[in-house]
Amino acid sequence: MGQVKVVFLGSGGGRFAMVTQKRRTAGIRFLGDSFDVHLDPGPGALVHSWGAGLDPRKINGVLVSHAHPDHYTDAEVLVEAMTAGATRRRGVLAAAKSVLKGSESIDPVISRYHQSLPRLTVDVEGGTKFEIGKIAIFGAEARHSDVGTVGFRIETDVGSIGYTSDSEFYEDVCRSHRDVRVLILCVLRPSGEPWRGHMTTDDAIEIVNDAKPELAVLTHFGMKMILRGPDDEARRVNKETGVDVIAASDGMRMILDDTIGISQPKIQNRRLGLDRYLGNDG
């Protein structure tokens, strides 16, 4: 069995967390034997990649779920890193159509020049399938203020990983994420604080109850969630669903093989009661 590493370079989202950097908005890095992918590289993605010891020149995929700045601002510079400063046609850029072509209300947010640099550029909608290295990735439906928004489902040899992106709750939201091993949910707001186009802890409970992953990870926290306390909200989802749930933190690392290991500040993990997931450096 192989191994997949997931690095949460940022765990913040939304306008106010982004502009204050109360939580980083640098996205998530996925690394395996044949792939090295950066998902939703918002502000800080380049700097925090280097800070985490992850060379952005080694990526072979950039994924962008939608055309909001907390998800896309560092995408062009990562494309340049991936293509050796625009000297090699390599890697995959896969993004929502709104990111690449715009929509009625927004212009494209990645230039035509940068779209031309990778070996392959993919317009992603729900159900779109493409490959990076030896893994298959599918676009997953989402419903957000950017109507082109997509989530992703990443199929690896150690199990599937689902990423909801920003989305409001709707009937059958879990269609693309059932039976995943790890489900990463963008939960902007805490319980009782709904905001159109986004998820709250209450929505996360509904989704986790339906999808039943081995582990659910809450991330992409807005200011109301940060002030309320993501760890407490994660414990509530765990209590209501019986599924292991953790709140991401900036710099958190997850290793998937025959087990799931989490490395992040010890005090946070001990409080969550997830000792069995901790590695030696946890």
Short recap of the structure:
The protein is an alpha/beta fold. It has ten helices and 15 strands. Helices cover 25% and strands 26% of the residues.
Rounded to the nearest angstrom, the radius of gyration is 17 Å
Total number of domains? 1
Portion of residues in beta strands equals: 25-35%
Structural class of the secondary elements?
Answer: alpha/beta
CATH superfamily: Ribonuclease Z/Hydroxyacylglutathione hydrolase-like
Q: Distance between termini?
A: 23 Å
Structural features, described:
The structure is a single chain. By secondary structure, the chain is an alpha/beta fold. It has one domain (4-277): Ribonuclease Z/Hydroxyacylglutathione hydrolase-like (Metallo-beta-lactamase, Chain A, 4-Layer Sandwich). It is 25% helix and 26% strand. It contains ten helices and 15 strands. It has helices at 15-20, 45-51, 69-72, 75-82, 97-101, 112-115, 201-211, 223-228, 230-241, 266-272, and strands spanning 4-8, 28-31, 36-39, 61-64, 92-96, 120-124, 129-132, 135-141, 150-156, 159-163, 182-186, 215-219, 244-247, 252-256, 260-263. The strands form two sheets. The chain has an eight-stranded mixed sheet.
